[in-house]
Amino acid sequence: MKEEKRLSGRLTLALAALLCLLFGLSLLLFLPGAGAAEPTEIQAAASLPERTLVGGDEADRLPTELLPGEKLDLNSATAAQLQRLPGIGEKLSAAIVSWREEHGRFQSVEELLQVPGIGEKRLAEIRGLVTVG
Length: 133
Known about the structure:
Strand content: under 5%
Radius of gyration: 24 Å
Number of strands: 2
Number of helices: 5
Order of helices and strands: HHEHHHE
Mean pLDDT: 76
Helix content: 40-55%
Largest sheet: 2 strands, parallel
Oligomer: single chain
Strand order of the largest sheet: 1-2
Structural class: mainly alpha
């Protein structure tokens, strides 16, 4: 009788552990963003606070590079956010924002060629990292 209770207790523990494992796996399958979904566009890094680093001003809070699958919207990104693009420093990010303020929203990524200091080579480096929303 004692051995049956011991066996029954072990089976109960094993079943409880199995149920916990199955529950955990089901959460992974049904949570938004889980699985092998395609990367989604991100309007700007500031729109995802969990993707920013702790710091004082905006430039300190931003990761220094774009995260996998992240794209910056040329029509809403700040100069600090644009500096996270390869080859875009203070001067070019300010020139992009200035061009946008002077000419209005970018209609296409290729319009970056109209910004002084951005040529075909630089555009090719960042084309897949930016979008126009």
